[in-house]
Design brief:
The chain is α+β, with helices and mostly antiparallel strands and 118 residues long. A five-stranded mixed beta sheet has the order 1-2-3-4-5, sandwiched between helices. The chain has helices at 3-20, 62-65, 69-86; strands spanning 24-32, 35-43, 46-55, 92-100, 107-111. It has three helices and five strands; from the N terminus they run H-E-E-E-H-H-E-E. A hairpin with a 2-residue loop joins strand 1 (24-32) and strand 2 (35-43). The chain has a single domain (3-111), classed as Trna Endonuclease, Chain: A, domain 1.
């Protein structure tokens, strides 16, 4: 699989998993000048911004290590843009779905409330 195909595969895997956990889809791949948010879903009344990360190997720390403070700040800025454009004022949460390993033997890990705006 090509890199962009792997990204789409990982996002679809995360989407299906989260829907099976009871979250409701709102939007996918929201983009603005500050960045992109992979999935936006509702967990009851909480709007959840979800970053999906896939890494085939742990060589550079795996998928979790790829979400550094700079990446978190971009996600926060993009979420702020989303809320302002949509004129929403509701409780939000930032989750991460980590997928590690080869496609046929991958492991998915969902981290709720992975980071917050300080």
């Amino acid at each position: 699989m090509q890199r962009n195909e792997l990204g789409k595969w990982a996002e679809e895997m995360a989407h299906v998993y989260l829907c099976n956990q009871g979250l409701q889809p709102v939007e996918r791949n929201y983009r603005c000048r500050t960045g992109e948010i992979d999935l936006i879903m509702l967990d009851e009344k909480t709007l959840v911004f979800i970053e999906v990360r896939y890494r085939k190997s742990q060589r550079y720390g795996g998928s979790l290590a790829s979400i550094d403070i700079r990446k978190q700040q971009r996600i926060l800025a993009t979420a702020t843009n989303y809320l302002q454009i949509r004129r929403l004022d509701q409780q939000c949460r930032f989750d991460v779905v980590l997928i590690d390993g080869k496609v046929e033997k991958s492991e998915l890990n969902w981290i709720k409330d992975a980071f917050r705006e300080e």
